[in-house]
Design brief:
Belongs to the ABC transporter superfamily. By secondary structure, the protein is an alpha/beta fold. About 30% of the residues lie in helices and about 25% in strands. It has one domain: P-loop containing nucleotide triphosphate hydrolases (Rossmann fold), CATH 3.40.50.300. A nine-stranded mixed beta sheet has the order 6-7-8-3-9-10-12-11-13, with helices on both faces. A hairpin with a 2-residue loop joins strand 4 and strand 5 (about 75). Helix 4 (about 110-120) crosses helix 5 (about 125-140), helix 5 crosses helix 6 and helix 6 (about 155-170) runs parallel beside helix 7 (about 185-205). The structure holds iron/sulfur cluster and magnesium ion.
């Protein structure tokens, strides 16, 4: 498959009074055309900043691209002007968020907002745009009469998320970024929304980058998973490999903290300790303060990503000399 989104050595730093926050600190990541990729990590690991960077939505300052590039379909995004961004955003890449109430405007009808979004990219009449909006709503399972005249507060949370997906998909973007799209929804609705996203992916070929803290969600719909910790990628693998054989101690910890319905009484494991203060990253491996397997070397030297075969990568010294070969991500950028 062709690479659609290519992030290489990308760094987004924030300059604050108290120092520099290296929210995203040199990540490499690819989403192929038509692929569904999960970007997973605890809150504060840099996954949301990564997604906002792809959308050009990080305010600069205080944000600053400290290095690297982001390419979408071959186009370098980090150097686009505000005008160029307007063409890319909504058209080539769209995004949906956790709480659609904050991205839908409460004072305008659904129809108003959809027609507006469509007409930003298509030179067509309001009547034509309305037709297009109704088709998009039907695609996400909303066909109720009069929906275009309703206001966001008249819809349930699940319906609002469907409307957001319809709006995001209406211009057939190449990439849809979904940041915790189901976190605010109850379990049944959550499953329906994930089904919907998978179906749209199959039917339209739009690739999806799913940002979540929930490995259960990515297991449902992703082809491949990238795990982030403290601003870096720590593991990457296709979904089956990752669930069968997670290799990074952090990923293993995340796996153990997935709630299991059949073992309801068992206490939920959570990884001890906290994510490091991004202004004072630990030297060596950033996970070392929380890692049960940490060795002296881990506190001194930063581990590279090791290639473990079959496209699986893991940033851990345990793989050194154990069949892991160093993956030098810095040679394939040119
Ligand atoms: Fe743990 Fe060391 Fe591997 Fe880091 S490099 S995850 S501290 S074993
Ligand atoms: Mg977030």
């Amino acid at each position: 498959a062709e690479a659609l989104l290519e992030i290489s050595r990308f760094q987004m730093h924030f300059h604050t009074d108290k120092g520099v926050v290296k929210a995203v600190d040199g990540i490499d990541m690819t989403v192929n055309e038509g692929e569904v990729v999960g970007l997973v990590g605890e809150s504060g690991c840099g996954k949301s900043v990564t997604s906002l960077s792809i959308m050009g939505l990080v305010p600069q300052p205080p944000g600053k691209v400290a290095g690297g590039v982001i390419r979408l379909a071959g186009k370098e995004l980090t150097s686009l002007s505000g005008k160029q961004w307007q063409q890319v955003r909504g058209n080539e890449v769209s995004m949906i968020f956790q709480e659609p109430m904050t991205s839908l405007n409460p004072v305008f009808t659904i129809g108003n907002q959809m027609v507006e979004a469509i007409r930003q990219h298509h030179d067509e009449s309001k009547t034509e745009a309305c037709k297009r909006a109704l088709i998009a709503l039907k695609e996400v399972g909303i066909s109720r009469e009069g929906i275009l005249n309703e206001y966001p507060h008249q819809l349930s949370g699940g319906m609002r998320q469907r409307v957001m997906i319809a709006m995001a998909m209406v211009c057939r973007p190449k990439l849809l970024i979904a940041d915790e799209p189901t976190t605010a929804l109850d379990v049944t609705i959550q499953a329906q929304i994930l089904d919907l996203m998978r179906r749209l992916n199959r039917e339209t070929g739009t690739a999806i980058l799913m940002i979540t803290h929930d490995l259960g969600v990515v297991a449902e719909i992703c082809d491949r998973i990238v795990v982030m910790y403290a601003g870096q990628v720590v593991e990457e693998a296709d979904v089956r490999t990752l669930f069968r054989d997670p290799r990074h101690p952090y990923t293993r910890g995340l796996m153990q903290s997935i709630p299991q319905l059949d073992k309801r009484k068992e206490r939920l494991y959570s990884i001890p300790g906290n994510v490091p203060n991004p202004r004072q990253m630990p030297s060596g491996c950033r996970f070392a303060p929380r890692c049960e397997l940490a060795m002296d070397r881990c506190r001194e030297q930063e581990p590279p990503l090791f290639t473990l075969g079959e496209g699986q990568l893991s940033r851990c010294w345990l793989h050194d000399g154990q069949g892991g070969t160093e993956h030098d991500s810095h040679t394939d950028t040119a």
